[in-house]
Amino acid sequence: KTEKEFNPKYDIKQQIANSIKNLELDYKLDPILSDIEVSKAILGPTQEYLNNIDASGFFTDASMLAAKKEEITQRIGTLTAHIKELEELSRQMESSERNPPELSHDPVRDQQEYRRSTDPILGRYDNPERFVLSITYNGHMWPGLIWVKAIETLIAKVEKFKTIVNNIQDVSKRLTERASVIFSADRPGQLQILIDDNKDIETHTLGNLIKSHYVYLLDHLIEHHYSDNNKYAEVWQHCFSNYDVGHPLIPQITLTFKAPGRESFPLFNVPVVTGTKPRPSQFEIYYDTDTNETLRILKITVDVILQRLESLLTEARALNTQ
Question: Which strands, in side-by-side order, build the sheet including 179-183?
Answer without folding.
Answer: 173-176, 179-183, 190-196, 252-258, 240-244
